[in-house]
Specification:
Arc Repressor Mutant, subunit A; 261 residues; five-stranded parallel β-sheet; three-stranded antiparallel β-sheet; 11 helices
């Protein structure tokens, strides 16, 4: 029962995130469900933020009261049941983020300030960060596989070596990942020389709950570290193969982007 509840919460959280990003009718298939079940649950702070955003979205004016109990609020806060929702509401009341008269809740000035901070630091819904081996050997897989697949699905691919910047490379990478809707992490590498930077970037994105699509050329998949081999990698042989599989995976897991024509 607990496993079923957790899977339901993950799916609901994914659906709400898709709708917040403007994808009102996200496509769901077996690949989508497999990928979603590999995501971590929202953190407590993420769930609190979602509660505040829900109140703002559901209110026509500042200070308007909305019902304390609703299935939609339970879904937005990734709660299994009303008890979890009430726990989050209690926390927000103690932090003066919301007010309650018992049956209804409303957002406070501090709560509105928090929502504004979230909006100002929002991700770029069209951006996909690509973490990979920067080698001429990978130019064709990127130019004929990754880049066109991302573009076809309605997103913009960003590889840090292709962007002009004046920051330290690590700072630029972290900033781009924070802004991204999702990242593609390709673990193709030279023999016995794993791409440590790709592992770092994928892990950093996961820590921010940013979806990661894992890929690797077939001759390198056995060299992928066992800690990440548990994830469902796209194993490819040629750029066209990568393009086709990646297009399908992005469409199933992330959904159509805002630039899709």
């Amino acid at each position: 029962q607990n496993r079923a509840d957790n899977e339901k919460v993950l799916l609901t959280s994914w659906l709400i995130k898709q709708r917040k990003l403007g994808n009102q009718v996200p496509r769901i298939n077996s690949n989508t469900l497999d990928e979603i079940n590999q995501h971590r649950k929202l953190s407590i702070l993420d769930r609190v933020d979602n509660l505040l955003c829900y109140i703002v979205q559901s209110s026509d004016r500042i200070g308007e009261k909305i019902p304390r109990q609703s299935l939609e609020l339970t879904a937005w806060t990734a709660s299994v049941d009303v008890r979890e929702t009430n726990f989050l509401i209690k926390h927000c009341i103690e932090k003066a983020l919301i007010a309650s008269d018992g049956e209804n809740i409303s957002i406070t000035i501090d709560g509105l300030s928090r929502v504004e901070d979230l909006e100002n630091s929002a991700t770029d819904n069209s951006l996909c960060f690509v973490a990979m081996w920067f080698s001429t050997e990978m130019d064709e897989p990127y130019n004929k596989g990754i880049y066109p697949a991302v573009e076809k699905c309605g997103y913009t691919a960003q590889r840090i070596d292709k962007k002009e910047h004046i920051d330290k490379i690590d700072d630029a990478i972290i900033a781009e990942i924070r802004r991204s809707r999702f990242i593609i992490a390709d673990f193709t590498s030279e023999p016995d020389k794993p791409r440590g930077g790709v592992y770092y970037e994928a892990g950093f994105a996961q820590g921010l709950n940013i979806p990661v699509i894992w890929t690797c050329r077939s001759d390198c998949i056995e060299s992928v570290h066992f800690d990440t081999r548990q994830f469902n990698h796209i194993v490819w042989d040629a750029p066209q193969d990568l393009y086709e599989k990646l297009t399908a995976r992005i469409g199933a897991v992330i959904g159509d982007g805002p630039l899709r024509r």
